[in-house]
Design brief:
The protein is an alpha/beta fold. It is built from eight helices and five strands, in the order E-H-E-H-H-E-H-H-E-H-H-E-H.
Length: 207
């Protein structure tokens, strides 16, 4: 099973990913946790460039850099893992590019989707959880998070940008209801985890 987690920065998606990892491992599953961009040497190097506040990156260059990191991840990590019984849990995947660079940066959605298709080589998650919170709540969570530090280049994009990103995620979810599950991220951590587990169990038992 390949599961991706999506949400604006500060939504709590990474917390939920780790809780689900623990749930799978407790039941004897082999689990691989990866993040985007990242998980390979090249992808991690690109991540440093993309998140650095020391330089300006145009929206199109940003799109291509994220996509280059994703191509490496798919070919070197995800595709090999899918030939085994490994559960793959991915902190962000291709929907982030559609939401952030397409809806958020305002790039042409057809071109974004064409580049996404090249980068993923058709490899898509079996299930995608979108942890939905508004920008203001996400900001409060990030301010109180341990080891918060200074916001990176993407996190500095501002409220209007993240509102467009959130709207983008909701639009994607509406067009792909079988894969995308929208989760109310305003609730307690354990309540959200319960919903995720219920959905996973349903999918595992449905032929």
């Amino acid at each position: 099973m390949f599961v991706s987690f999506e949400g604006i920065d500060g939504s709590g998606k990474s917390t939920q990913l780790n809780l689900l990892r623990e749930w799978f491992e407790a039941r004897g599953h082999s689990v691989m946790v990866i993040r985007e961009p990242g998980a390979t040497l090249l992808s991690e190097s690109i991540r440093e460039i993309l998140l650095s506040t020391k330089q300006s990156i145009t929206p199109t260059a940003e799109l291509l850099l994220f996509s280059a990191a994703r191509t490496q991840l798919v070919e070197k990590v995800i595709q090999p893992a899918r030939t085994t019984n490994t559960v793959i849990l991915c902190d962000r995947y291709v929907d982030s590019t559609t939401a952030y660079q397409g809806y958020g940066r305002g790039l042409d959605l057809e071109r974004v989707q064409a580049i996404n298709a090249i980068a993923t080589r058709g490899v898509m998650p079996d299930l995608t959880f979108f942890i939905d919170v508004r920008y203001e709540q996400a900001q409060q969570r990030m301010q109180f998070a341990e080891g918060g530090g200074e916001p990176d280049r993407m996190e500095r994009a501002g409220g209007d940008f993240f509102n467009r990103v959130r709207d983008g995620y909701l639009s994607i979810a509406a067009t792909e209801p079988k894969r995308f599950v929208v989760i109310d991220g305003y609730r307690e951590r354990d309540a959200i985890h319960h919903d995720l587990v219920s959905e996973v169990e349903r999918r595992l038992t449905t032929p």
